[in-house]
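Thread: "does anyone have the structure for this chain?"

Original post by V.I.:
We have the sequence but no experimental structure in hand. Need at least a predicted one for the grant figures.
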Amino acid sequence: MAASLSSSSQESFKYDVFLSFRGPDTSKNFIAHLYQALQDKGIYTYKDDERITKGKRINDELLGSIEDSQFYIVVFSKNYASSSWCLDELVKIMECHKTPKHAAYPVFYDVEPTEVRKQTGVVGEAFTKHENDEDAGKWRNALKEAADLAGWELKNTADGNEATIIKKIIKYISLELHKVNFNFDKKLVGIETRVNDIVSSLQIGSNDVRMIGIKGMGGAGKTTLAKAVFDSISFQFEGKSFVENVREVTNTSSSGLKSLQKQILSDVLNEDVRVSGVVDGQNIMKRRMCGRKVLIALDDVDDIEQLEALAGELDWFKRGSRIIVTTRDEQVLIAHRLNLICDVNLLSNEEAICLFSRNAFGSEGPSQGYEELSKLFVYYASGLPLTIKVLGSLLFGKDKPEWEDALQRLKTIPLAKTQKILELSYTVLEDDHKEIFLDVACIMKGWEKDRAIKVLESCGFHAKIGLKVLHQKSLITIDEKERVGMHDHIEEMGRNIVRRSHPDTPHKHSRLWKKDEIEHILTNESVRIEFFSKLHKSITYNFHGDSLQGTEETRCLWFYGEKFDPCVVIKGLRNMKALRCLYVFMRNYTTSLELIPFSSSFPDALRYLRFECYPFRYLPKSFQAKNLVTLQMHGSKVVQLWEGGEHKVFDKLRFLDLSGSKLRTLDLRLAPNLETLNLGECCDLVEIQDGMWTLKHLRYLNLNGCKLLQNLPEDLCRSRCLEKLDLSYTKIKHLSNSICILKHLKYLNLKLCQMLDKLPEDLGHLESLEELYLSYTNIKHLPDSICKLKHLNYLRLDYCLMIEKLPEDLGHLECLRYLYLSYTKISHLPGSICKLKDLMSLILEKCLLLKKLPEDLGALECLTYLNLSSTEIKHLPDSICKLKHLNSLDLYGCKLLEKLPEDLGRLKCLKKLFMGDAKIRHLPESIHLLKGLLIYGSREFLELVGFTITQIKTPRFEESYVEV
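Reply from O.Q.:
Generated one for you, C-alpha cells below.
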C-alpha cells in the first residue's frame, strides 16, 4: 500500500462522454444543464460547440472526437433527423458502439422511441428532406439501431422532470465509467481486501451520515488506503474532496484551516468560495454542505480543532454523506465521536515479499539468487509498506555485493526516510510522554503493562495516561495479554534518538541497555575511581574526581551481568548522579562477597532499584535512598537493610521485594508508605517487628515460604487497606480475631500452614474476601460465619484431612465459583450447596466417606467440571443430566458406581468422561448423541462396555480412550 492509484483503464480515451444533439432544439436548455452536470461530476465531455477548433474541417475533428470518446449520449429531438451532420455523427457513433469499450445511450427528449425507430411522426417529417440522399439508407439503419438501445424517455421518466432525468443519467454514466475504468494500481499489494473492509464499514447504502477513522503508525499506508477507498466510491456522491496533509498545512500556515475549508467548499460546490476566517468557513459549510451528498477525506489529522473546523457536526452534511479521517492519534477520533475507528493492517510476509519484488525487480517475486537476501530486507521492514517500497527502490538495479553492503548498513544506520516520517509522532509528544516513550523503546518493549506502569510510576511519571497516549498515537501496542509492544522501526527510531547525539560515546546516552557497552562503562569508571582513590590515599566515597563525567547523563540502566564482578558494578555506578532507574541481574560470579566491605554506593537519585541476586549483606552505608520508590532484591544475600541495624527511613518507598533473601528481621517503621511488601521464601525470617500501624497504605503482604515465622505483628489489623495476604507455608499457629477487621482483604492464603488448626469465629466479617486458600492445614471445622462471605468465589479445602463437614448454610456463598474438597473426611454435602448458581468447578476427588450426592445437583446450572473420582458414590442423581454446561465428568475409581443416568445424552456440552475402575457394564444408549465426547478408561473396560478401541492416548491415567 505504498503507491498512488491509477484510475485509467488499459485503453485510454480523450473524452469520457460525447454529446450528440440538434443545437437549436436543446442546446440552451436540456443539453446545457446535462453538460454542466457532467462537468461538475468530473466526467470529461465533448460538446461540439465547446470543443471544435476553429480553422479545421468539422467532419474530421468530429470523427476523431467520436473515436476518442468512451460513451455516447444521443439526444433525439424533433429536428435531430433533419440535420445531415447529426445523422453522420449517429452513423459513426453506432459503428463505434459495436466495438469493445464503447457504448451509446439514447435520450428521447420530445419524441418517442417508435418515431425514431420507424422514422414516423415528427421524426419522419424531419427526415423527408433526405429521402433522395445517397446516405439515406445508412441513416435510417443508424436511427433504428439507436432507438433499440436502452436509454431514457423524457415524458415517461419522473413525469418529464428534466432535473431528475439528468441526475439519473449522471448516476448511470458514473457507475458505468467506474466499472470500466477503475482499477487498483498494480504496484499496490493487498489493497483490494483492505479497501473492501473499509467500504463495508462505511455502509454506503444506509441513509445516515457516517464518519469513519483510519489510524495507524507513520508509513503504514493510511493515506494510500484512504485514497483507494475514496477513488473506489466517489462516483456515488454528488460532491467530493480529498484533503491531503491536514497536519502539515495547519501547522505551517496561520491560515491553514481557512485554506482547507475553502478547498473543500470549492471541490464540493464546483465554484470559487470566499472564506474570510475559520468561523466564517464553518458557517458556510453548515449552510451549504447540507444540500449535497458528499464524500470528504481528511488525511493526516492530528488535532481535534482540525476536525471541528472541517467536519464539525454530522448535521453539516446531507444524509448519505461519508467522511473519512486518517490519523496517527486515536484520541482525536475518539474526542470527535466518530462512528467507527479502523486500524491499518501491516503487510503479511507474503504481501511484503510481493511489494518488495515489484519495486526491486519489477516482478511478483525475487530474481533467482536473491531470494534469501530479499527475505532479510523484508524481515527488517517488519510489514511497513513505506520501508518496503523505499528499500526496493534503493536496491533496484544493484548487484549482490551492493545488496549485502546495504543490509550491513541497516544494522547500524536506520533508514533515514522511514525514521523521519516516524519521528513526526514523537516530536509532538509532551516532554514527560517523550521520556516514557524512550523508556519503552530502549528497555520496556515486551513487558507486561502493569510491570511497566509500576516502574514508570516509581520514576515519577503518570504512567497510565502516558501509555494510553502512546497507544492512541500508534507508537505502542497493547496485546490481548496486556503486554506493551512496539513496531521494530519505532523501537529503532526511539533508540536512535537516544544514541544519535553521541553515537560513539555511550556513556553520554540517557539510557543504557547494551551489555557490552555497559560493561565497558562500568569497568572504566570503577578503574578510575580506584586510581584516584589510591592517589589520594583515601577510599572515601565522597571523592569527586574527573572520571567519565558523561555518565551523569544516564537515567536508566538495564544490565544482565553474568559472570561480572558485582563490586565493579557498584563502583561503576558512582558517577551516574542522574540515574533514576536501575536493573541489575547478577549470577555466576565466583567470589563470595557477603562480607566484603565496599566504599561505593548507589546514586541517591534512584527511584527504581531492582538488583536480582544482590551479593552483599546490607545496602551501602552512604546510600541515602531518600528518592527510592521501588526496591526489589529477589534472591539477595541481604541479612538486614542497614548494617548494625541503623535506622534509616525510606520515606518514599512504596514497593519492597526482598523475596528469597537471607533476611532475618525487618523493622516496618523504616518504610511508612509501603503499598507492597514481598518477603516470600525468606527462609531465615523469624520476626517482623511491630510497626504495621504505620503502614496505612499497605495493600499486599507476602510471607509465603517463611518457614520459621510463627507470629504476625500484633498490630497487623491496623493496615486497614490490606487487600492481599499470603501466609502460606509458614508456622503460623493461629490467627487473631483482629484480622477480621481487614474490611478490604480480598485474598487470604493459608495453604500449608500445618500448625494452623482453627480459624477466627468472626471470619465472616471479611466482607470483601474473594479467595480463601486453606489447603493442607489442620483445620477441623469451618466457622458458620464463613457463609457470610458474599463475595467469595474461590474456596480451597483440599487436603484438609481433619474436616468432616461443611456449614449447612454454604449455599449463602452466592458468588462461589470454585470449590475444592479433595482428600477431606466429608461424608455428605449440605443440600444448600445446590443454591450455588455460579459454581463452575466442584472437586471431590478422594473424599472416601462420600457416598451420596444431593438429588437436586442439577440446579448447579453453571457447573462445567465435576470430579467425583475415588469416592464411594453408588449412583448419580438423574438431575445431573440438567447440567447443560458440564464439560468434564470424572468418575475414575468410583468402584461402587454401577450405572449412569439413562438421559446422559442431554449433556450436550460434555467433552470428557473419565470412567476407569468402575462397576459399570453398559452405557446408556443416549450417550451416542454426544458427538465428539472422549471416554477415558482401561482397554478392557472400554471393550467391556461395547467400544472398539481405535485410538490410544495417555493424557492422564495411561489408559485408552474412545471418541463417540
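V.I.: this helps a lot. Residues 1-10, 51-57, 531-550, 949-959 have pLDDT under 50 and may be disordered.
O.Q.: and The CA atoms of residues 841 and 865 lie 5 Å apart.
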